[in-house]
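ingest -> validate -> predict -> emit
validate: passed (alphabet ok, no gaps, 140 aa)
predict: started
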Amino acid sequence: MRQKTLFPYTLIYTMAAILCLPAVSVSAQKRPAKQSKPQSCANAMTQVEMNQCASDEYKNADAELNKIYQQAMLKLEPEHKEKLKAAQTAWIKFRDTHCECEAFFERGGSIEPMYRLECLKQITKDRTIQLRKLVEEASR
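emit:
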């Protein structure tokens, strides 16, 4: 009776295991639980990072607008405050609809939020300039 030798199979499996070790080692390294923001938005590499940066930039622009709006409301007389409040409400509707329109061609894509947020940021900065001028005029 002929005895089967296991040597070739053992050698093949051992070599395969050795060759796969680096891949296992790399995949076993710790990964961050949540994708974090890059140190600088200039270094954003993924669409998720770019979307997060655009969101942060819009939030900053919106915070500045709200600060200037509050300053304007403190300086205006009651009737003028009502006009500003109505204008701001209409402007918010315009801003949101306009930016949805701007991002429409990207709808459903991973870049859509960035397009919309960039539009929101820019139009908000423009409105902040308008409100600053109103505050300056009311301060005279």
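Residues 108 and 115 are 12 Å apart (CA to CA).
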